[in-house]
Amino acid sequence: MRILMVASGGIAMIRPLNWALEAGHQVWLLCPYNPFSPQDTPKNYGYLPFTLELVNYHELTGELPKDEITHQLLLWTAASQLRAIAKKFQPDIIHVHGMFFGAECCALADLHPLVCSAWGSLNNLIETDPVQSKQITEVARTMLKVADALIVEAPGLVETCQPWISAFQRVDLIHLGTKTQNFSPQPAKYVDQSRRSLDITEETKVLLSPRGWSKFYNHHQILEAYALAYPHFQKPTVLTFLKFRRTNSLQEVEEYYRFFYSRLKELGMEQNIRWLPPVPLEMMPTAYSLADVVINYPITDAFPSSLVEAVACERPVVSCLLPAYRNTFVEKFCTVVEPLKPTALAEALVEAVNHPSLDQEDRLAKARHFIVENYDEQAWKKKMLNIYEQVAASYKKMNSSSQG
Q1: Could you tell me the mean pLDDT of each successive run of 10 residues in the chain, 404 residues long?
Q2: 180 to 19, 95, 292, 309, 311: CA distances (angstroms)
Q3: Model-level pTM?
Q4: Is residue 183 assigned to a domain?
């Protein structure tokens, strides 16, 4: 099978890309960066630098054109370029990762059969506020109309999307899962090495926020909750963050960091904060194993791999309960609190540090077993590849019928 992938980057693109390549499919990737070095490039892979003018504009400026005429001109030019790429490559499937301007180009170029992964773009459809639930982007509305298959990451979205699509489209639940043989409790010697490198004493409890650095992940409210909880901890604690940018705007990240650090100084808690560098995926199991409590507290979310990874590593997780997490293992195996309420998070952190349950080890082991059985990457890989095969076959059959 020949697959054309269009993406802005990120692990949500890399995993399915690797799945397709491992299965022997021929893949061309249209993306701002090449995830493979020249010496590691698979034989069945081709990289297309993002030549689309609209994408180049965004990469250089960090934003889309503000005036509609420029936006439409770049969009039509990009769609024309994309059609030429598809004509040359003749893909059996086009998979666009995310509802961004690249997806808009695919729609305008009328590329089919088209698989589109939402990855957070449809969160509002399952928000509890009925007004908020209608506030999805125009690109998202377009993709709900034109995608032959829609990939969503939260169970609640499968049913919620049905009224938005036609009878000829399909909605499938796909999670990236994790390599459970790698994401598991790590040997004590590696954890001890990490503690020493971060100047964390043996008796100190580590609270870890593993999400990337973005205001959407609410690091400032985690800090506020920690400050509220701190006087009540019965053991020394440190709060640890990852220095990993999760937004296209460097300026936005810098502004958010300045705001965060200003508040940190006001609270006088600089000595209680630890920073992990951008950790490669293969080293994340050690980062999770370093933590005595993992904190997940975003404003809005899809269904993140970090929750799967933390539970696979048998770490206690305190998380806000967002709509995307309902009817998942989060409700059963994690401590859930109200979102956007630092006092509730603070209470949960105090309880997790001071009074871990007597059967905690057993519960964490059962939680890991659930992840191994239900979220191992290989199961999701098989499902994704089956979707490719089915959508391609269905589109080919439909075309043959219409031409006959």
Answers
A1: 91 93 97 90 90 54 65 80 93 94 91 95 78 72 95 92 90 95 95 94 96 91 98 97 71 88 96 91 94 96 93 98 94 96 98 94 97 97 97 89 64
A2: 16, 26, 20, 8, 10
A3: 0.90
A4: no
